[in-house]
């Protein structure tokens, strides 16, 4: 048996009936056999937003396959740590994962572009770049060395700026601020004097409550309310300059995915695509309701970053992003593709959505 054959079999991890034994190749799986996969995630089980999305993808795959394929979900920490999803999928511990690309910034810095970057694309614009502007091909190329296929799989929408224990009235208030903010937003704040702290989702509340951090961002009102941040911080800032989009990613062990029959490959990929749209609409609806509850029942003070703070954030964001142009050839191409998408889509967004919203509000 060759090493590649063994690795392929391990990655597939086909949970067929005992009579089938160890199969020499995926093509020998009986037509009536049930394929059992594992999904590992970066989220607490059924966390509003991404946790709910991950479970729905599993459920949808089983339904659409008529029970031919089951995907069993392990929440963060159950099988692998929250930030161990990529390694688990790459190594075959699980055939599938659900997470967010900015967690892999340390392994491949340009991964952040596939969740969100400061002052970047909105959810619809981001989806357009991935599906119409060449983003998916670049995403595939970036993850190829890990033997992993990434796709969009859920979206938590435009993010909030974060929860703060004290007011932010000027750039000076950022000096020394300990804040949980992953991705490039954390680097932007670092350049403005803050101290970004890397924490997986399950550790944020305790860190905020205990004073390990002074502030945190996470997602939007629906997920943030479920995390309980309103119990320990009352200032809730907008806009989410660091994450104007909330794309979640499904990761597939490439050997496992390609070892499925063609119709099951289509099912798992379309299950993710369907969830991408459903999750965005759900987040928009639930965020609106949760924001009202946070303000009216929990006494949360929704604030907007002062103009000078936004100007400083925008300036430093441009400097941080410019580094990608010369970091390495692939990062440069991803940066250029993303910038080209903004240049193409932003004028249309201003003419269409921005002007309409102003007109609707009478502004």
UniProtKB/TrEMBL annotation:
PROSITE patterns: TAT. Residues 1-24 form the signal peptide. Keywords: Signal. The keyword Manganese does not apply. The keyword Endoplasmic reticulum does not apply. It comes from the Bacteria. InterPro entries: DctP_fam, SBP_TakP-like, TAT_signal, TRAP_DctP_sf. It holds the Pfam family DctP. NCBIfam families: TRAP_S1. PANTHER family: EXTRACYTOPLASMIC SOLUTE RECEPTOR PROTEIN (PTHR33376:SF5), PTHR33376. This is ABC transporter substrate-binding protein. It comes from Pannonibacter tanglangensis. The lineage of its organism: Bacteria, Pseudomonadati, Pseudomonadota, Alphaproteobacteria, Hyphomicrobiales.
């Amino acid at each position: 048996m060759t090493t590649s054959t063994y690795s392929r079999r391990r990655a597939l991890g086909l949970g067929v009936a005992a009579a089938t034994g160890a199969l020499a190749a995926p093509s020998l799986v009986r037509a009536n056999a049930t394929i059992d996969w594992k999904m590992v995630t970066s989220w607490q089980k059924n966390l509003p937003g991404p946790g709910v999305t991950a479970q729905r993808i599993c459920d949808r795959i089983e339904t659409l396959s008529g029970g031919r394929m089951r995907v069993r979900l392990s929440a963060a920490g159950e099988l692998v740590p929250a930030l161990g999803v990529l390694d688990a999928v790459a190594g075959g511990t699980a055939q599938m994962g659900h997470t967010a690309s900015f967690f892999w910034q340390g392994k491949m810095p340009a991964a952040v572009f596939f969740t969100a970057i400061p002052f970047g694309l909105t959810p619809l614009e981001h989806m357009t770049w991935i599906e119409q502007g060449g983003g998916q091909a670049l995403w595939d190329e970036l993850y190829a060395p890990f033997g992993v296929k990434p796709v969009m799989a859920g979206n938590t929408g435009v993010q909030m700026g974060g929860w703060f224990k004290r007011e932010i009235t000027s750039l000076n208030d950022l000096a020394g601020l300990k804040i949980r903010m992953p991705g490039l937003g954390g680097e932007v704040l670092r350049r403005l004097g803050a101290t970004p702290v890397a924490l997986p989702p399950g550790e944020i509340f305790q860190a905020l409550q205990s004073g390990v951090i002074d502030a945190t961002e996470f997602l939007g009102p629906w997920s943030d309310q479920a995390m309980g941040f309103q119990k320990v911080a009352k200032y809730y800032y907008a806009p989410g300059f660091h994450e104007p989009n909330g794309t979640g990613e499904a990761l597939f062990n490439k050997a496992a995915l390609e070892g499925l029959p063609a119709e099951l490959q289509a099912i798992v990929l379309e299950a993710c695509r369907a969830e991408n749209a459903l999750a965005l609409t759900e987040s928009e609806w639930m965020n609106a309701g949760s924001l009202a509850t946070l303000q009216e029942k929990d006494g949360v003070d929704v604030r907007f970053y002062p103009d000078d703070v936004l100007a400083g954030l925008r300036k430093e964001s441009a400097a941080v992003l410019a580094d990608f142009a010369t970091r390495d050839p692939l990062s440069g191409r991803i940066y250029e593709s993303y910038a080209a998408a903004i240049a193409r889509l932003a004028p249309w967004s201003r003419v269409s959505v921005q002007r309409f919203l102003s007109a609707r509000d009478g502004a």
